Amino acid sequence: MTDHLGDLLSALLDGEMAPWQADAARVHMASCPACATELDAVGGARSWVRGLPPVDPPFGLYERMLRSRHRWARAGVAALTAGAAVSIGMVAFSSPREAPVSPPVARLVDAHTATASVAGDPLSQLVPAATPVSFPR
Amino acid sequence: MTKALVAGAVAAAVLMGGPSLATAGDDPVEQARKAAETTPFSGRVVITWNDDGVVREAQLDVESAGGVLSVRGTRSVMALQQERLVHGQAGWEVLWPSGLGPVGHPGLASGYAVDSIAGPAVAGYPTRVAEVRKGAVLRELLFFEQRSGLLLRRDQYGEDGDLERRVEFQTLAIYESAAAPPPAPRGARPLALRPTSASSLPSSFDAPGSLAQGYRRLGIYLRGGVLQALYSDGVYELSLFEQRGRLDRDQLPAHTGAVSLGRERGWSFAWPGGQVLIWHAGSSVYTLVGDAPSGDLVAVARSVPSHTPGSLVHKLRQACRGLVEAFRGDF
Questions:
Q1: What parts of chain B have a pLDDT lower than 50?
Q2: Which residue of B151, B271, B290 is in closest CB contact with A124?
Q3: Do A130 and B251 touch (CB under 8 A)?
């Protein structure tokens, strides 16, 4: 171990190093005043933090956090829905639609009666043609 | 009305030993057509029809002489041999040109049965009646004048057995000698109609050779950008009109009723001669016109194949448009 220990000091303090690694770290600190000093500083800071009294969170903190999360979730869903709707609309109208067709019903009915009167009895087929009804729109 | 129907009626008449409708082997409807064209007569015809539960009636004057059949109601219609003309706001117009030749008839579709019985007098003339049934349901009663073969009355019934339409002579005078024919119209506006065949149709159109309920195609005609295919099951005639585009539902006639056609929605309404059914499928708008019962029309409409481009993009676009229209309340 030739370099300084750095983050390994925290592992040493937490007992997370293998025994042989811990022994090697202590051998290094015996000959490295900088690492020994840093170990003392990190250990002191941890002890100071752990010595602080416990503090209760303000009333309603968790509820506010959850509500905020729901609001974001709702906003996200709304954004996704709006995006989907816009996408559907863009796909639906991305190309020119077929030309609108309004069947000329009266003329088509006339055409049919004329054709049917050639195929069938002319009298009974033509009588409706002389009785036109309007097809108001 | 087909020769099979006619032959059935004639055979039934012969079997029953009643007065013959016509010379053996003749088609009663064909004979009625000839009688309407060649027998001098005049009279008044009453037509009654069921308009969505409301019974309506109209009276018309008819006259035939010298090969000219004239029908005068709210407007005038004329038959000069094969030619058909109507007098509209712009004067006489040709509805069907001469020279196209006769329209063929298919055989009677399966399920029909025809009986011939002695009928009542109509407008003072004795008749024979052809009863046309489909299954057990009476569909038509045809009253033929015994001597001339003129069709004096025609009753059409719905699937429920209710009378849907009747055309009947109220008064009639059949003349022994030819009278002066009604004046033939002059300067009638011609009609842009072109008979065609299935093989020479533009790829955007389709006119199947047969449809549901035994309907078979009799002819295909192009009227401008509209394709007309005439079908018959031997009893009823139907015209299927096809136009490329999408249906402008805002322009549909008022008082239409919605009809489910499976995947599509259709709109139907009555006119004095039958029913009209309009729907949009694929890239086309279809209008089906005919005197068949509404159930037959719906079945036929459902059997019409639609032109639906197979590309995924098109299907996606159609699905998205369907969603948009659903949210707009179009359906």
A1: 1-25, 329-331
A2: B151
A3: no
Provide the mean pLDDT of chain A.
Answer: 80
Q: Give the pLDDT of residue B302.
A: 93
Long-range contacts of B256-260 (CB under 8 A, 24+ apart): B257/B52, B259/B298
Instruction: Give pLDDT, residue B326.
Output: 59
For position B102, what pLDDT does the model report? Answer: 67
Residues with Cβ within 8 Å of residue B130, at least 6 apart in sequence: B5, B9, B12, B21, B28, B114, B115, B116, B140, B141, B142, B144
Q: Taking the CA of residue B298 as centre, how many other CA atoms within 13 Å lie in the half-sphere pointing to its CB?
A: 17
- Burial status of residue B274 (CB atoms within 10 A of its CB: 0-12, 13-18, 19 or more): buried
Question: CA–CA distance from A109 to each of A39, A123, B6 (Å)?
Answer: 101, 16, 26
Which tens digit of pLDDT belongs to each residue from B290-316?
Answer: 999 988 999 999 999 876 655 556 566
Residue from B29, B77, B215 to probe the interface with A (highest A Cβ count within 10 Å): B77
Instruction: Supply the pTM of this predicted model.
Output: 0.70
Task: Decide: A123 and B69 in contact? Cβ < 8 Å.
Answer: yes
Any chain B CB within 8 A of the CB of A105? yes
Tell me, what DSSP letter sits at residue B303?
T
Rounded to the nearest angstrom, the minimum Cα separation between B89 and chain A is 13
Kindly provide the ipTM of the predicted complex, given to two decimals: 0.83
d(CA B172, CA B77): 19
Between A114, A117, A133, which is nearest B272 by CB? A133
8 A C-beta contact, residue B48 and residue B27: no
The answer to whether residue A39 scores a pLDDT higher than 60 is yes
B232 contact residues in A (CB cutoff 8 A):
119
Of B151, B230, B253, the CB nearest to A136: B253
The whole-number pLDDT of residue B316 equals: 66
Q: Which residues contact A133 (CB under 8 A, 6 or more apart)?
A: B271, B272
| Burial class of residue B300 in the structure, from the number of CB atoms within 10 Å of its CB (0-12 exposed, 13-18 middle, 19+ buried) | buried
Residues in chain A with CB shorter than 8 Å from the CB of B167 are 123-124, 127-128
pLDDT in tens, B258-281: 888 888 889 998 889 999 999 998
